[in-house]
Amino acid sequence: MSTFSKRDAKIYNKFRTIFQWVTCNIFFGAYIKLMYNYHVEGKENIPDEDKFIVAANHISGRDPFLLPFALDLPIAFMAKEELFEKFFSRLLMDFCGAFAVRRDKVEVSTIKTALNIKNTKWMLGLFPQGTRDSSDRIEKISKGFASFAKATKTGILPVAIIGSDKKPKWPFSSNLTIKIGKMIPYSDNIDDMMQQWCNVISDLTGKEYVLE
What we know:
Blueprint: H1 14-35, E1 36-41, E2 52-56, H2 63-71, E3 75-80, H3 87-95, E4 99-101, H4 108-118, E5 123-126, E6 137-138, H5 144-152, E7 155-162, E8 174-180, H6 190-205, E9 208-209
Parallel strand pairs: 1-8, 2-5, 2-7, 3-4, 3-5, 6-9
Antiparallel strand pairs: 7-8
């Protein structure tokens, strides 16, 4: 699995950029536009030139494909290593630029991959909740995403996903909204960056942030 945990900058090439764009914008995007009342708010908050980490709440398996489509950016997501065990899942993860991580431990290879991504045209994508949570609370937040921001010296773009956990049976029968918050500047204070992200996501989603 180490092949998919440490990723060189060179693998984020034109092929994977095009593959992710076609997968997320053509195939997945067509489904989203057909089945949901789909809206994106706050695109003006996306920096034009700066590198940043995309950090979003996580409520469904659609989210890693939804964000590159909504933000119109190539995003390399961390994915649990189990997704790389089966052939077709591994192929999709690989070609879409994802890389494997262990849930119980942040390895040196993961940090190196994050640094390598910074030297490409891709953005690093993270879900601070670690796993899907469609409850009415923002809780159990890992500090890992803020640690990556500190390690890579990049700001955090908070993104709220609302409605992707709904499974519409008919076209336009469910609402799906992406709200992009203002950039959280890079800081050496990991706790402060995490707190800012939690507050922004709570405000954008209307969910209660529960401090542990």
